[in-house]
Structures are given as structure tokens and as C-alpha cells.
């Protein structure tokens, strides 16, 4: 099991940041490890969508998440299915900050099927966090300018 929490300051209002993070279809263009996305209708009560990700990290794997949202302040998910993970629960929360910036709190609790060394999980999650946040800022910026 791996638990990751971090805070990141994004340029943009909470509504703009929420809209960028919520724009799942654009992830493959902006988030380096995401190769494809499929967005389907919700399968459980109160969810907003079922999103399937194909991700290339150490190996290629997929996972589907039940997405939930309270715009523009919170987005969270629970695992539907995966070929590698047995658990994925996480969230984003967004708080207004000075100068049209937003403080985003990101939390992820994930567990993998089989034996995956904790050191490997920690290394992969930590090394992908910076590029992921940079990708989200580019996505947010692209929506702000259009």
C-alpha cells in the first residue's frame, strides 16, 4: 500500500483549476504517463463518470475509476477495476489563494496486486509527481487562454 499526499500552488482560480483537472479527455496531451483515456457514464449512484486510464510507468497498465465531484472545490475517486491495482482512492481539493492562484491538496491511497516492493512504489510515485503537476498547469493554462 502507498499513501501519497502533497500540496501544489496552481496559477488559476479554483474554478479554472477544477475545470483543468476535470478535463479527463485532455490528459494524454498534457500528463506524461497517461497514454489513453476513455470517459463513460457513471455506474454507481452520485458518481459523475467512469474514467478508464491507460498508463505507462514502469509497465503499461490500466485502471477504471468511479469519479465524484463537488465543483469547483473537490474531485475524488474509487477504483472500479484494474489489471495491476487492487485499491485506488484519492482526491483533489482546491482552495483560493492570493493573486488568482489555487492551493490544491492531492491525496492518493493505492495498493497493488501481487508483490510490488514498497521502495519501487515510492520511487515511481515520487518521480511522476512533478511532471504530473507541470502537465496539469499546462492543461489549466491552455484552457485559460482559449
Brief overview, please?
This protein is of the alpha+beta class and 146 residues long. The chain has helices at 14-22, 27-30, 118-145, and strands at residues 2-11, 34-40, 49-56, 60-70, 74-82, 85-97, 101-112.
Observed structural traits:
146 residues, alpha+beta
C-alpha-based Rg, rounded: 15 Å
- What is the global morphology? globular
Low-confidence stretches: none
Count of helical stretches:
3
The residue-averaged pLDDT reads 92
Which class of secondary structure composition applies to the elements? Answer: alpha+beta
- Sequence of strands across the biggest β-sheet: 1-7-6-5-4-3-2
Largest sheet: 7 strands, antiparallel
User: Can you write the helix and strand succession as a string?
Assistant: EHHEEEEEEH
Terminal residue distance: 40 Å
Share in β-strands: over 45%
- Give the strand tally: 7
Helix proportion range: 25-40%
Amino acid at each position: 500500500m502507498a499513501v501519497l499526499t502533497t500540496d501544489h500552488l496552481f496559477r488559476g482560480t479554483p474554478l479554472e483549476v477544477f475545470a483543468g483537472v476535470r478535463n479527463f479527455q485532455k490528459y494524454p496531451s498534457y500528463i506524461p504517463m497517461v497514454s489513453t483515456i476513455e470517459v463513460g457514464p457513471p455506474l454507481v449512484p452520485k458518481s459523475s463518470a467512469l474514467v478508464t486510464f491507460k498508463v505507462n510507468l514502469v509497465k503499461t497498465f490500466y485502471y477504471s475509476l468511479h469519479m465524484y465531484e463537488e465543483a469547483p472545490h473537490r474531485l475524488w475517486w474509487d477504483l472500479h477495476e484494474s489489471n495491476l491495482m487492487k485499491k485506488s482512492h484519492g482526491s483533489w481539493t482546491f482552495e483560493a489563494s492570493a493573486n488568482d492562484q489555487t492551493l490544491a491538496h492531492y491525496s492518493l491511497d493505492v495498493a497493488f496486486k501481487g508483490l510490488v516492493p514498497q521502495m519501487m512504489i515510492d520511487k515511481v510515485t515520487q518521480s511522476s509527481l512533478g511532471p504530473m503537476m507541470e502537465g496539469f498547469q499546462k492543461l489549466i493554462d491552455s484552457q485559460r487562454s482559449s
